[in-house]
Amino acid sequence: MSKSYETVIGLEVHVELATKTKIFCACSTAFGGAPNTHTCPVCTGMPGSLPVLNRQVVEYALAVGLATNCGINQTCKFDRKNYFYPDNPQNYQISQLYLPICHDGFVEIETAQGGTKKVGIHEIHMEEDAGKLIHDEWEDCSLVDFNRSGVPLIEIVSEPDMRSADEVMAYLDKLRLIIQYLGASDCKLQEGSMRADVNLSVREVGAAKLGTRTEMKNLNSFKAIARAIEGERRRQIELLEEGKPVIQETRRWDDNKESSYAMRSKEDAQDYRYFPDPDLTPVVISDEWLEAVRSRQPELRTEKLERYKTQYAIPEYDALILTGSKALSDLFEETVALCQKPKEVSNWLMVEAMRLLKEAGKEADDLVVSGAAGGSSTAPAASAGEAGAGDGGGAAGGAGGGTGAAKAAPQTTNKDADKGDGSGMASGSGGGAAGGSGGGEMTGGAKRFKFSPAHLAKLIELVDRGAINRTVAKTVFEEVFASDVDPEAYVEAHGLGMVTDTGALLKTVDEVIAQNPQSVADYKGGKEKAFGFLVGQTMRAMKGKADPAAVNAMIKEALGKM
Amino acid sequence: MGEKGNESILHLTALELGKRIKAREIGVAEATRACLERIRSADGELRSFITVDEAGALAAADAVQGRIDAGELTHPLAGVPVAIKDNICVKGLPATCASKILWNFKPTYQAQAAQNLLDIGAVVLGKTNMDEFAMGSTTETSAFGITRNPWNPDRVPGGSSGGSCAAVSSGEAFYALGSDTGGSIRQPSSFCGVTGIKPTYGTVSRYGLIAYGSSLDQIGPIARNVSDCVAALEAISSHDKKDSTSVDREDLDFSSALVDDVGGLRIGIPEDYLGEGLDPEVKKAVLAAADTLEKKGAKVERFSLSLVEYAIPCYYTIAMAEASSNLSRFDGVKYGYRAADYDGLHQMYKKSRSEGFGPEVKRRIMLGSFVLSSGYYDAYYLKALRTKSLVKQAFDRAFAKYDVILGPVAPTTAPEVGKSLSDPLQMYLGDIYTIAVNLAGLPAMSVPCGKDPAGMPIGLHLIGDCYKERNIIRAAYAYERTRAAELPPGFAA
To answer: What's the mean per-residue pLDDT of chain B?
Structure first.
């Protein structure tokens, strides 16, 4: 390479919001139902049906916008994006083009050089997801499942401020944590609740003008994004080196082949014929509504990190890991609230939980905090919105359907969540935020580990009062981790409690000494290792249920007498 | 019950019939059968209906009768048979919008306006003919045949709610629902000599109304006189959370405006509505009606409304833009017509839509797509939106001075069948007096005010400010009291 190049990257990130119901109707957003069971005339685009906006979508979008330092368009509108595709039942998508809800924000990322950098956010808009096409090659036909049709999304459009795959990763991680902390989404790339399109161009270092960019789609893991960025950067540089132009086009990344291919060029780009959706009135966000959302913003990662270091005296590295996942930090805080032993809790999570997750090929986000414990310190950002804001809160001044009618049309919005279900949003427990729903053990078909802070606290307490030793405790922890057992009941049922019968212990020590004369001789001869062997033999004979400190003392005493 | 008995039932107004049903003088089934027999004898020529639901109507009649007898149904229109335009979804009945593309579509859900009627004990006779997707002014663009004008079968009934107006005018139904995007209730009401109201935008829920131009569409009643029309309007009006543009109005009492008193009512006649292109016979009848109202105590004066010439391009730009998007869901994928032979998805779309839509609908989809396309959006669509707010401002100025704006509904009486479609631009110009009302979201009605020398009815257009239906109802009622009701020759007693 004769010249040196700079890569310029901007991202379009789609995030599926954690509402219980769809953006424009009352159908469930739950994943995994039989095809076309979570549908109604609205989300299948039947003629005559009309959309009604879910207020919770607005609140989540506002929460994300505020947390990413965005300006808020307190009067925003929905527009129709017109295109024909069978997964799109109306053949238009309701989105926001002309007046998106949030604009001109930024997030700060840490750079590889150890500094920080601002990545600008051009806008955040609300829109509906499409259905899913299933191509049945056997029958040679395509089937449509509209369960996902109308699931709410926000699209976060960044400025072209990133210069490397590392910065992209840092940006995505930052967004993921912010959104997870807000409870607005679980942000799982693999499961599609977070999706990123990469806009990339290269230019010679020092060039003032941006190069021609391409848009890369179908990136469903962090690794795929990193590989796609590297691959596309290389491809564009090669073109430029050969004196060929980069063509503005949309490309699809094939992660198996580690290469991309052109989907459509700019010339083929569709004209979406955007125009304001006449079925929806402008969304008018009153100062009161905005303030209500602002006041409910939970503690975000940066603040939490600081608090862990000061309040709990946790080392920076541990605090980074613990706060690096909303689920993990919820688990940590709820357990600490119960047992007041931050160091102990941190150790269990940092060492044992992380080890077990790694063995299972899972990440901290796969943890689900079971609802057994009391309220978390961090309620989901917008949870109170259901009850609090009501219809009046956001009541609009906007005239009905653009008629300019003299009297203000009320802003009719549908409210998220089935009213009958008191548990979900109202509980405010970490469960609602992290898992998307209290009982959501299965999300996206992936097994998640669900355990209760109460059980971890109990385990710590058992060790603390000497009811079990640490070795046993590790075994019990595995059970808590795998199936959320009550540690006390489990210890009882399996006879794992510490042997406190001194007579039995003394007898065992005597037997071990009698059976291992060589080791005794070695010890007497100055070989300290032999002592450990004798302790080990005694522990084994006691099936691990003895207090190692007591065993130590007894052997020492017995050997001293010899 | 013989033909003679049926005739006497059919000549009752909807409210009179409701009263007789309540008094147990006429049974609901009896009234329903009278309508069904009338449809059987008249509709071969008129084609007011696309679907007649004989079995369903008779079953509903029995059920309604039971609920009236049990004292559950007390609305003045309980038990009175109604016809519903075929773009309004009635659960279980086809909703074709008079289009081949929806020839087999049966909604599994109910339009809120239809539900409101069922709730008061209306008996639905069937679904009425219309211009395809409500695009037209003559009911000639229907894929299910042309509706004829009951006053003269060589004339069109107007449109797009031509089937509903012809059915009411000819005694096939006591009242009907129509929809009005640019005059589609008022113009056929005028042509068929019946009374129709387009309420303020947002008064009647659009849920279940298959959209043409969403920001302009409004459902309204058509009946044989003002009182029937008002009773039906009260029945269908409601705030509906399923429709974001539905307005929560507290003033849905329209009946109390039925007073024979226009003393002090300020009526303005736009000079702009009396100019070139207006048939002198229509002008004469309309001005005579204004004189009548003046004699009854109203203050009538002429004024200049302005912007009238911009209303037509503005209206067609907005309506077609919205239509091009609203109608994109008809693609042969999920329901409705799908072409028999196609190769791949793109061709399936193309052939299904090419074969499924009629020429007027295609014209509007194409024009609508054009005005929204990039590079033209600002010049056409955005400009039309700005013009729309100017039109609204012009009306605001007028309503600062007047309670009612009075004028003709259409420049002429009903044209002959087959004379309109060849010149769409001329046909669009025929909407000149009605469309501005939709652009501004205003309530307006058409009330019969005479006939031309050929015996075709003329309608008087009364326009009110937003949420001021009561003013136009008051004027309409007082005016109606000065005239004898007239029925078309084939139906008159």
So the answer is: 96
* B441-460 pLDDT, tens digit each: 999 999 999 999 999 999 99
Question: Where would I find the H helices in A516-547?
Answer: 517-524, 528-541
Can you tell me the distance from the alpha carbon of B475 to that of B486, in angstroms, rounded to the nearest whole number?
19
Q: From A20, A146, A56, select the one nearest A439 (Cα to Cα).
A: A20
Which residue bears the tokens 């096939």? B172
* Phi and psi at residue A262, to the nearest 5°: -70, 135
Query: If you average pLDDT over residues A411-438, what whole number do you get?
Result: 39
Measured distance CA(A25)–CA(B7) in Å, rounded: 48
- Residue among A50, A142, A144 whose CB faces B243 most closely: A50
Answer whether A181's CB lies under 8 Å from A300's CB. yes
Model pLDDT, residue A192: 86
Q: How far is CA A100 from CA A60, A126, A128, A282, in A?
A: 14, 7, 14, 11
Q: Using the beta-carbon criterion (under 8 Å), do B334 and A89 form an inter-chain contact?
A: yes
- Over residues A81-98, the pLDDT tens digits come to 999 999 999 999 999 999
Question: Which residues between 43 and 102 in chain B have a beta carbon less than 8 angstroms from any beta carbon of chain A?
Answer: 87-89, 95, 97, 102
Q: Classify strands B219-223 and B266-270 as parallel, antiparallel or unpaired.
A: unpaired
What secondary structure letter does DSSP report for B212? S
Beta strands at A214-219 and B195-198: parallel, antiparallel or unpaired: unpaired
Q: Average pLDDT, stretch A444-458?
A: 74
What topology does CATH give the domain B3-257?
A: Amidase signature (AS) enzymes (3.90.1300)
Return the residue matching tokens 């706060």.
A323
DSSP A468: S
This model of the complex carries an ipTM of: 0.96
User: Distance (Å, rounded) from C-alpha A330 to C-alpha A308?
Assistant: 12
Task: Indicate the angle between helix axes B54-69 and B28-46, nearest 10 degrees.
Answer: 150
DSSP state of B327: G
What is the torsional sign of CA A399, A405, A410, A413?
negative
Cis geometry, peptide bond prior to residue B446 (ω within 30 degrees of 0): no
The CA distance from A222 to A173, in Å, is 9
**Cβ of residue A392 closer than 8 Å to a chain B Cβ:** no
Q: Give the pLDDT of residue A255.
A: 87
Q: Name which of A129, A112, A128, A109 is nearest A178 in CA terms.
A: A109
The number of residues in chain B equals 493
Asked whether residue B90 carries a pLDDT value surpassing 90, the answer given is yes
Nearest Cα to Cα of residue A459 among A480, A433, A483, A429: A480
Reported as a single tens digit per residue, the pLDDT across B47-80 is 999 999 999 999 999 999 999 999 999 999 999 9
- With cut-offs at 50, 70 and 90, classify the pLDDT of residue A139: confident
Say which residue the tokens 């179908």 belong to: A218
As beta bridge partners, residue A135 has A142
Least confident window among A234-238, A432-436, B361-365: A432-436
Q: pTM to 2 decimals?
A: 0.86
The residue type at B372: L
Q: For residue B441, list chain A residues with Cβ-Cβ distance below 8 A.
A: 399-401, 403-405
Where do the structural domains in chain A lie, given as residue ranges?
5-284, 299-373+445-493, 502-561
* Chain A interface includes B377 (CB < 8 A): yes
- Stretch 117-146 of chain A: residues touching chain B, C-beta under 8 Å: 142, 144
pLDDT band at A236 (very low <50, low <70, confident <90, very high): very high
Q: Residue A374 has which token pair? A: 């009391």
| pLDDT tens, position by position, B291-303 | 999 999 999 999 9
Q: Is A390 on the interface with B (CB under 8 A)?
A: no
Q: What is the pLDDT of residue A230?
A: 94
CATH class in words for A502-561: mainly alpha
Q: Which residues of chain A does B244 touch, with a Cβ-Cβ cutoff of 8 Å? A: 50-53, 279-281, 411-413
**Chain A residue with the nearest C-alpha to that of B243:** A50
Pairing of strands A152-158, B123-128: unpaired
